[in-house]
Amino acid sequence: SRVPVYKAQRRPRHSQTLVPEVGEGQLAMDRHGIVKSEGPSHAHLHRNGLFLVALLLAGLCFLSFDLGIMAEHLEPCHEHSIARLPEDVGDRSIEPGPSACEARCKSTPGCGYFNFWPPDGGCALAPENAATIVPYYGVISGPAMCKATGDQPRNSSRKKWYAMDLWMIDGQYYDFRPLMSWHPGTKLPLMKTKGKDVSVLIRVQHLSDRPLKALQKYAVDSSLVLDETKPLEYRYSFEPDGFYMTAKDRVQKHLAKLGVKKPRQANNAILTKIGVNMLLWAGSWYRIAVSPFCAYTCLLNMCSRMVLTGQAHEAMHMNVLPQYPVVERMFSRFVIDGILCTPIDSWWKEHVVYHHPHTKSNLDPDENLKQAIPVWRLTNATPWNPMHAYPLASTAVVGSIFPYLRGLTGHIPRTLFDSFPDVRREGAIALASLILLHWLPLFVQKGKRKALLAVFLSSMLASYLTLVAFHVNHLFGAADAMRNAESETNVDWGVQQMLTTSNFYVGFGISGGLDLQIEHHLFPMLSYHIQQEVQPIIQQTAKEFGVPYHSYSSLTSGIIHHLSYMVELGSKPDDATLEIHREEV
């Protein structure tokens, strides 16, 4: 007998239709009928997605480089998007660059400042007494003697100073430029406040009065100052026996008793929270970008974004790692420039220089009095219009796409092709942040619906909740009542902060430090764990002075009260109130 030989035969054609589609983690059969396990499938990824992202990033890097003829760097005293008015010195001319516009100003009698528009090369001159400084997108402005800027005062041979190079405190001029190279808070606070009245800011940014006393040696004779700085109009007081100075004295004594020598330094728990959330954010975002959709991963990424935003807000105040300012700034810049898509220098100026010292006043940019976002009515001091009638919808939409607004409103396209590399770099960073930190799943994933859902749950929902958490702290009825009490003068600065600020309780710390805004506003120089330490002192002092201490039982309670007040602001006032608003306008 012969031993039969079996040859491999192909399976019938009809059997191929019975084999189920192999997915991720399933078993598969090879052509010899052997069962084997397959690894993760990448069928959900777009083949050219990563290549497209890399190509876009390479293009952005190229745009941010110095491109020779079309590139012109800003001088140290040039300011971007700031205009000096009135423009009544000579006629408007066309110049090749800001240096030529500056030279024209220098050779024109009576010219103190120049304004240059890169898009069309327009050059307009302003007199030496031009005190009005207005935000104006794209304009480059500066003084006539820009080239003489340095650590030494201008016109030092004649012992003269320009007001825009100095700082004003209680009507007295100071020259702090020699401090820029070794200021403990870095040179950013000095650069952003040069030429301004910092009487309130310097008092509320330092726990003791020692810095104010030490700065007296930098005082300048006011009779030798050319031009003038307009004194800040405010109604606050810092009486020694008032609420704020009493609370400040008690906090100083308490911290001295505890032996706290570095109140800005975050403790190990906060540093660990930052490190863990950075890892959670990076790991979850990678999984969102390259793995199949998972709602839990998206929500984990959302929570880490909220925590990091709160901690970056603390780092911007130098309350995390003040002994390592470069590391602290890198962290805050990554979150604020990247996750929030907001230039950190611009936000620092708005938040620290104007919002903190002048909460709920006409100087507070967070009030949206100029209607930069026309669908928001954040205070009853803003005249009502029909666009304000849908507060819940406008808050949800604007809050969700807040990081994208700069791109959607045309800011990024305008800056990407600006003639200044510094400006182009700002636009390139903003667009790269949107692609890498917000829209990456849309480029990489094949299923666009699930990719969009992933972006919504991680990026957009985090943006909305973070914005509402910020608004809960200041947008409520009692705060507006204090804001509108214009007849009250000489108000204790601390009382002003107490009446216009609110806390909320979050036991697990997802807010990243936004829950103690009363303590943060009163003492922005304290780290979060020190704010927790002095909270009972502030509560007791407020009770003694009869000052209310606003606090919600939870973030949810705060959001409900805030949205209810937004609905109230969005309701159409009666005709008499509308007429009053028109007269005020």
Structure description:
The protein has 22 helices and 16 strands. The protein is α+β, with helices and mostly antiparallel strands. Helix 6 (243-258) packs across helix 20, helix 7 (268-290) crosses helix 8 (295-316) and helix 8 (295-316) runs parallel beside helix 16 (448-472). The chain is globular and about 70 Å long.
Q: Tell me the overall shape.
A: globular
Flag low-confidence runs.
Answer: 14-27, 35-40, 66-73, 147-158, 578-582
For the biggest sheet, the summary is: 5 strands, antiparallel
| Rounded mean pLDDT score | 79
Bin the strand percentage: 5-15%
What is the number of beta strands?
16
**SSE class:** alpha+beta
Helix content: 40-55%
Distance between the termini: 112 Å
- Roughly how many Å is the radius of gyration? 29 Å
Count of discrete alpha- or pi-helical segments spanning 4 or more residues = 22
Trace the largest sheet across and list its strands. 3-7-5-6-4
Keywords:
alpha+beta; 5-stranded antiparallel beta sheet; 45% helix
Fold blueprint:
Layout: E1 27-29, E2 35-37, H1 49-64, E3 79-85, E4 89-94, H2 98-107, E5 111-117, E6 122-127, E7 132-143, E8 161-162, E9 167-169, E10 172-174, H3 188-193, H4 199-204, H5 210-214, E11 219-220, E12 225-226, E13 236-237, H6 243-258, H7 268-290, H8 295-316, H9 325-339, H10 344-355, H11 391-400, H12 405-408, H13 411-416, H14 421-437, H15 440-444, H16 448-472, H17 477-483, E14 491-492, H18 493-499, E15 503-504, H19 517-522, H20 528-545, E16 551-552, H21 555-570, H22 575-584
Parallel strand pairs: 8-12, 13-14, 15-16
Antiparallel strand pairs: 1-2, 3-7, 4-6, 5-6, 5-7, 9-10, 10-11
